[in-house]
Write a structure and sequence with these properties.
17% strand; 6-stranded mixed sheet; 10 strands; 4-stranded mixed sheet; single chain
Length: 252
């Protein structure tokens, strides 16, 4: 696997996929998004992989879009390519036949927060924080969160999180039901590996069937949400105000 995403499977069938741009807090570049999709797809097709752990190298899980190294799309066709690439990563994650455990270290921002929500079970470091900054930039969320977030935290709280862009601690996310467990930073990967080891011993077909059945009922509107998000994000990319804000940030 290329250097922006590392993928390693141990002898027990636990595959660890690591976002690997620590110098950029694992911000989402074109390469990282594509490499993550490829790694997840490969893991989902690998019979020897029983369970996946998704985490980030260094001080963050994922700091969202890399606005400092941002190639802003100039027209609708280019914007659609960018957004569809992001949504394809979501499909590879949320629709993966293998159960995905998120080990969320440090910041999970924007698209990174979306990826954490897309995991089947997420374990957060007690020092981790998350928020959605998209509206501040004139952009839009992706990852199916317009369907998933209200279902998980309720419509009113989802509105607060998406409109206001407030920052939330891991403890607060646990209270909301967005974090499955919260542990100390030192215990994050051991905790993730512990539950992964337990899942790896289960019959893989039964795990896949359970995930499929749960997702079928929980994700009834996911594809519609992804499509609506795609169109809204494209409009955001083409908005002159968004272009101005991103350009000013990139120069700062």
């Amino acid at each position: 696997m290329t250097s922006t995403v590392l993928s390693d499977r141990d002898t027990s069938g636990i595959r660890t996929i690591t976002l690997n741009r620590p110098e950029r807090l694992n911000a989402m570049s074109v390469a990282l998004i594509g490499d993550l999709t490829a790694a997840l797809t490969e893991a989902g097709c690998d019979a020897a992989t029983r369970v996946i752990i998704l985490t980030g190298a260094g001080r963050a899980f994922c700091a969202g879009d890399d606005l400092k190294d941002h190639a802003h799309p100039k027209d609708e066709a280019a914007a659609r390519v960018v957004v569809e690439r992001i949504q394809q990563a979501t499909r590879a994650l949320s629709g993966n036949p293998k159960l995905v455990i998120g080990a969320i270290n440090g910041w999970a921002v924007g698209g990174g927060f979306e990826w954490a929500i897309n995991c089947d079970l997420s374990i957060w470091s007690e020092t981790a924080k998350a928020f959605f900054p998209e509206l501040e930039w004139g952009l839009f969320v992706t990852g199916g969160v317009t369907a998933l977030l209200p279902a998980m935290v309720g419509l009113t709280k989802a509105r607060e999180m998406l409109y206001l862009g407030e920052k939330y601690t891991a403890a607060e996310l646990h209270e909301l039901g967005l974090a499955w467990k919260v542990v100390s930073p030192d215990d994050l990967m051991p905790a993730a590996r512990s539950v992964a080891a337990r899942i790896a011993t289960l019959p893989p077909q039964a795990v896949a069937d359970m995930k499929r059945a749960l997702d079928r009922s929980a994700h009834l509107n996911l594809e519609s949400a992804l499509q609506a998000e795609t169109e809204a994000t494209i409009r955001g990319f083409l908005d002159p105000e968004t272009t101005k804000r991103i350009a000013e940030f990139a120069k700062s």
